[in-house]
Amino acid sequence: MLKKWQNERDQVEMVWLEDLVPKEHLLRQIDAAVDFGKIYGIVDELYSEDTGRPSVDPVVLVKMVLLQHLYGLPSLRRTAAEVEVNVAYRWFLGYGLREETPHFSTLSYNFRHRFSSKTVDGIFAWILDEIADAGYLSPNAVFIDGTHIKANANNKKKIKEEIPAASKRYAKELMKEVNADREKHEKKPFDDDDGTPRASKPDKNTSKKKLARRKKMKTVTRSTTDPESGLFVKGDHKRQFAYEAHTACDKNGYILETVVTPGNVHDSVAFDDVYDKVTEKIPGVKTVVADSAYKTPHICKKVFDDNRILSTAYKRPMTMKSGHEWWKYVYDEYYDCIICPEYQVLRYSTTNRDGYREYKSDPRICRNCPTKELCTHSKDAVKIVQRHIWKDYEELADDARYTPEYAELYRRRKETIERVFADAKEKHAMRYTPYRGLAQVSNWVRLKFAAMNLKKFAKRKWRYSNHFTLSAVFAYDFFLSLDNTKTPICALA
Fold first, then answer.
1. Cα separation values, 167 from 266, 270, 389, 472, Å
2. Who wins on pLDDT, 475 or 248?
3. Residue among 237, 248, 286 at smallest CA distance from 270
4. What is the DSSP letter of 167?
5. 399/351 same-domain check
6. Looking at the structure, do residues 342 and 409 belong to the same domain, yes or no?
7. Cβ-contact 267, 294 below 8 angstroms
8. 184 and 275: one domain?
9. What are residue 363's phi and psi, to 5 degrees?
10. Predicted TM-score of the model (pTM)
């Protein structure tokens, strides 16, 4: 039997906004998980009590931005439009059905001009403190990695510039140990590296890269649309202006810290910023888990000197193609030399500015070596093997890789930091940023990660509280049912 739908658009009803939001709705869980009144303490110094026009409640502004990142809305304009028609959003903000909601321009202006990066950091830290106070953080092991975010820049609008190469943070520490090593081997120490070019004359065989390195300059491709982004190159075909979010999380997937850099900054370069911020907040970190991109002499030394363990992956050595395997060149610590596959000795030659000891073979022996073609293509028949002065720390990381405990921690990377990036891009619209400039993108990423932490925390707290409540009710009901003279608690509900 056909039944036609009756148009009831003109019907007048009396409704309660509380009844229009489902009991298990995500925003109910979030509202019950944290006290949003603490936001007033974060933004208190940005407002005047008796001067100017009445402002929009800052809690409402923060909640609207969190809504954008919770549901992966592409812009603040879209968020403001959704708030107007979405009943759950209005309930979360504390607005009635007919009450006018804030205009998107108000929201945009406050987060561009009033709320600085300090405010965003305060919001991020407040949510993380709530998670820590609830006992949900597990910071013994920290997982660190980076992911690229497409910049709001045209790939065709670009220029090439020659800029000064940034000096390494550990340059002074490295140079100090290099000079100590050279003096130990009765070599003249290097002069202090003050940033001036070396006075050596280039010969005909000097490559352009070496000349640029001596001048301490490098050529980069810069976007004219967003100059603060960096050109990210992956493979032969993928070239994209991007930013990179270097992030640390714990075992449970809560984001502990993030640092945003241009897309052409290597993971190992940004490691110090992330590591220092995390260990300053959480001194109890015992293990740092990272992929092979972070397996550098400096990072290994930094982590192990802090009495922590670096759990990382295998990194294939950079050896000559179709030559001897790297492990056939054995380092003898006692005699400080290298034993080649033909059991000949490569003796110490020098320690270069990059911190590598160079061990050279005897050309008189190498010229008549039966496996010379597998060892070196040098015209002088000299094989040079380099070993970093901090190589011992890398070997400690290799030793940790073979232990079951740290091998299991590295296996959990795909369940922690990799899942964080997957959720951020698939569910929270982090593949592409609509903002330009490092400061704006950094605030955007931190707010997005704060929303993700809040969502995970609220769902877990809601699930656990309801589970334990129901379990206690059923247990109490069971014990009361053993006595027929008493009424079960379920019957009283």
1. 14, 13, 19, 61
2. 248
3. 248
4. P
5. no
6. no
7. yes
8. yes
9. -60, -30
10. 0.85
| CB hemisphere CA count around 33 (13 angstroms) | 31
Can you tell me the distance from the alpha carbon of 153 to that of 155, in angstroms, rounded to the nearest whole number?
Answer: 6
CB neighbours of 80 closer than 8 A, spacing ≥ 6? Answer: 64, 101, 102, 103, 104, 107
Digit-coded pLDDT (tens) for 221-243: 899 999 999 999 887 668 899 99
**Residue 377: predicted pLDDT:** 87
Burial of 379 (0-12, 13-18, 19+ CB in 10 A): exposed
CA-wise closest residue to 294 among 311, 318, 306 = 311
- In a domain, residue 480? The reply is no
Nearest to 385 by CA among 432, 430, 332, 421: 332
| Three state DSSP letters for 439-455 | HHHHHHHHHHHHHHHHH
Q: Do 271 and 228 share a structural domain?
A: yes
Q: How crowded is residue 296: how many other Cβ atoms within 10 Å of its Cβ?
A: 21
End-to-end CA distance of the chain: 41
Cα(39)–Cα(247) distance, integer angstroms: 24
Helix, strand and coil content of the chain, in percent to the nearest 5, comes to 45, 15, 40
Number of domains in the chain: 3
Q: What span, in angstroms and rounded, lies between the C-alpha atoms of 268 and 259?
A: 13
Residue found under tokens 């034993």 = 339
**2 domain residue, yes or no:** no
Domain range for 58: 17-115
Q: What is the mean pLDDT of residues 436-462?
A: 95
484 C-beta neighbours (distance < 10 Å), count: 7
**Domain-located, residue 3:** no
SS in 3 state form for 174-186? HHHHHHHHHHHCC
Q: Across-strand partners of 221? A: 160
